[in-house]
Model the fold of this input.
Amino acid sequence: MKYLILTLIFVLDLTASTLHLSISSSPSKLNPLISTDSASSQIGDWIFSSLLTYDKNGKIKTQLARSYEFIDETTVLFKLRKDVAWSDGLPFTAEDVKFTYELINSPKIFTPYTSQFRYVKSVNVIDKHTVEIKYKEPYFKALETWMMSIVPKHKLENEEKIMTSSFNQKPIGTGKYTIEGFEISKDIVLHANKNYFEHAPNIEKIVYHFMPDPATEFLMLKSGKLDLGGLTPLQIERQIDEDFKKKFNFFEKISSGYTYLGFNHNNPKFQNPKVREAISLAVDRQEMVDILFFGHGQICNGPFMPKTFAYDESIKAPKQNIQKAKELLKEAGYDEKNPFEFEIVTNSNNPTRVYATQIMQHQLRKAGIKATIRTMEWQAFLNTVVMPRKFETVVLGWSLGLMPDAYSIWHSEGSKKGGFNFVSYKSYKVDKLIKEAEKTIDREKLGLIYKEIYRTIVKDNPYLFLYVPNTITVVSKDIENVSQSIIGVMHNVIDWIKP
Done:
């Protein structure tokens, strides 16, 4: 009888609905307060929740909070949900919110997210389910600040070494799914949180198959072993057939991110603005977009995304001008006998970036510029090149939120250890404008300030802004309730049904 029961349980587990996805790199840490890579964020978003989030239309909505109210221009009162528990069963309370704020500002951790809370004056627990947030002054992102994931006080308050805590590999959260842990370069399994406060996800398990090779991911998608995936323009235009189109629904929209070539401004090579301008004029961005995207992308003109209040439509990326580039290089002391040379480093698991780098290398050669290319595995690239600033130039990308915030990437304070200003760009004018913008509640005035930031950054050439790809997502037709939104197709995953 015992064996019969065990067999029955095994069969039931086999029939549990499972969503099969892929991931190209391993997470580093699943603690959302210290993780900075996309793989960690991708997994962590299933496990943790925040006070507020965005709905499918890009509007702010409550999550762990059930309501919020501005008492005055610098005080927000959050009423918390009473039906939320951590995945180990203990209740979520206002103490967890206060603890998260204190930890993110603690010397125990190194994190770029501290900057998001720099205008918070205090976090006060009014009662078990009420939190009062006081700001030092009016702040344009007073609500967006609390889209940061909340971590459990009872699990971390006695941890002395947060950066190396076992919690970073085996976290507990209040999110849609739970995880028992993960191993580097292995598949990652998530289980539906049966006690999730909205409702338990209909799909009981998510399996992320580790696939560092995009070609393998594409083959798995075509064979039906993945339920969802992204297609490149080349794949959608040249490498799928009618049978594939019968199996999947297609969703395409402009992405919320861009790719750039970043100059290390601490390197004397790139401190001469004529050199940066010459490199910019040597690059044909439209040719790059045409080769890479077959019409499924566009040139990136600057640091903020189209259709946001910060975007300046009057600014366009410069067109290729080889002659002018050579003249600027000559003025900077470079010619055929003394060519300008530099290295470009990027991550090997992103083939589009690698191809873009190769196209640039060819274009730069026309202006007499010698660029060498080095590609690296993502974690090695991040930990030994990007974060310690040990590069001449990097090809990287930013995925941006719906609310533009220039501080973490463009303010000079972001160039310190753990900050996102990897290239060490420093502009007194931009610093001043960013600080002015942060105190501006009026959206029209805020837009004017941000457009000035946009124009100044583009003029300074701290990056070469390259391209904005479209996101092309395919989802198996076996899955019900899938719909497009401004934040992507996965906005309502807990309502998806997979037979």
User: Anything to note?
Assistant: The longest strand covers residues 463-476.
